[in-house]
Amino acid sequence: MLSIKNLQASVDDKQILKGLNLEVKAGEVHAIMGPNGSGKSTLASVLAGREAFEVTCREATLDGKDLLELSPEDRAREGLFLAFQYPVEIPGVSNINFLKTAVNEIRAYKGLAPMEAKEFLKRVKEKQKLVEFDAKLANRSLNEGFSGGEKKRNEIFQLAMLEPKLAILDETDSGLDIDALRIVANGVNHLRSENNAFILITHYQRLLEYIVPDYVHVLYNGRIVKSGTKELALELEEKGYDWLKESVDTEESAAL
Amino acid sequence: MITQVSTSLYHQLLAVFEEGLTSKGHLEQVVTLRKEAFARFKESGFPTTKMEDWKYTNLLPIVSQQYLLHDNIPGKSVDLKKAFIPGLDAYQLVLVNGHYRADLSDSITEDGVFISPIEDIVDNASFLKHFAQYADKTDNPLVALNTALFGGGLFIHIGKHVTLEKSIQLIHVTSTSEALFNQTRNLVVLERNAEAELIESFITNDDGTGLNNIVSEIVLEENARLQHYYLQIANEQSRYLNHTEIQQARHSLYNNYNCSFPGAQFIRNNINVRQNDSAVESHLYGITLTAKDQFVDNHTIMDHRMPNCESYEWYKNITQNTSTAVFNGKIFVREDAQKTNAFQQNNNMLIGEKSVVYTKPQLEIFADDVKCSHGCTMGQFDDDALFYLRARGVGEISARVLLIHAFAFDVTEKFSNIKVKAYVDRLIEQGLVID
Fold first, then answer.
1. Which residue ranges make up each domain of chain A?
2. For the domain with range A2-255, which CATH number is right: 3.40.50.700, 1.10.357.140, 3.40.50.300, 3.30.470.20?
3. Residue in A73, A90, A141 closest to B393 by CB
4. Disulfide: which of A85, B52, B89, B403 matches A171 by Cβ 3.0-4.6 Å?
5. B-side interface with A, Cβ within 8 Å?
6. Whole-model pTM?
7. ipTM greater than cut 0.90
8. B28-44 vs B141-149: helix axis angle to the nearest 10?
């Protein structure tokens, strides 16, 4: 589904991603972990199309489509979804109107007619329930005055509404209490299917107790330095990142 | 002393008045007022940037050219399409180059409503009581000029206890192939308990330069209520100098919704609200969207003169390209105006990198038991919000439209007329320059 080869990206002449490779197949859940500043959020931003980054050497395709050639909206329309680490508050834009616009623009891209109002509202109700998202929040301005947890739940609600092929959750677990974490995880587990895939970017193993990944990767210094199964996450939780950092740093200096 | 002897319009106007072309006013009282006003204008000349109220608003380039001073071709065909507001059921009144056109206007047959071209009024007690009694008290030389030399306009009188069944849409059409100077004078009187909605649309036909000097005096008697819309959608050749002076009596309500869109090259609006008695409420809302090298200046005065009154003012400017917007909101709370509640807010979004906003909230308080606030913000387009919307599949244009509507929302949500609100939302959308 997603194929990334030798992805390099920099911001203000500072290289952050230094040749990253990743293959994600339909039905899989991948976790990307790594210490602060390793490039996790940059990866999410580059895939979603944030303009601040200069992508130098690259290949990133979603079902064969070159993502990096597409505008952010077209990436979303092709089925990519980024759950933001810091969802933006937009006063004056109603949550529901915004979602309706998004759903219908994605449909138009696929050559489908706008969704009937009734059908749309039915879907809203159904998905609200799925992610335990308060109907009152859905009718408010987009994220305005929402608590941290409410914002993250809104991301998952939008994810449920838009039904993307590939969802990237950028530290969705940060700032969540146990109850909110459980709700978010339940939502994601309900949405998992044979046809979609998830990339979970996280610092902590905690989230992975709720959403069990098929693969765990460690990102360090702009590259994936170790991949494994869910057991790798447990090992990291126990030992921290230092042992990995050391071996990578030794390797790199040896290569020089 | 006059400071710009060289301006050609000034000399043209001097000649016209002295030739006595305007002495057709039959009423001696009116003729006297006009003569006095002319003397004032002759003395002051056009406002210059040396005057504090005109600091950012340079009239010199505009008045340094020759204009036709009269163009009232009977039956001139005009296109009113541009003023059309979908779904709005209103009485349509049309002024072409300031002159009332009965053939293009609806007749209003509701009891207690009197509407007449201002130049035709011979004897009307209400007219004589109010005409040139308010705006001329200000130091705006353009009002004096208008009083002296206005060519047309309307007197609208709504009798006591009358609630108009439909809105009145007053369409100002500037239609000219040559540079033309129009001076329009309106007087609107709502008697006790009267209620009306007045929607003024400003449009242009033809591609000649039109300079319009429009003065309106509005009198709200006890418990009268007026919803008043300005919809400025004229084209780039046009220039507007508007002065609106509102007098409010006890328990009256005045709401002004002042909307300007890309088009008219130069706009100066003066809106002065005088609360002359207690328990008066006034709301001033403004949404200005500018483009290219447009210049839009809104000057308001909210004058609290008596106790227990309320005012609420919110202006939003969105400037694109190299355009300029000015907001000057002055609130007076006079010594007698205890228990005043006055709120003012001005928010600006500068989209054009070379666009300019001058804003000046002013509060002068002479009473000691009042609640007043004013605030002002300057900002740019929120790129994070734009990216967030696009990352959800919303196209860039739709996303920009959503965000601009969101910025304007605090103001547009206050519109009392949902048809006009929808129309204004659409004009905002159409006015956005997407590069």
1. 2-255
2. 3.40.50.300
3. A73
4. A85
5. 382, 384-385, 387-396, 398-399, 402-403, 405-410
6. 0.87
7. yes
8. 140
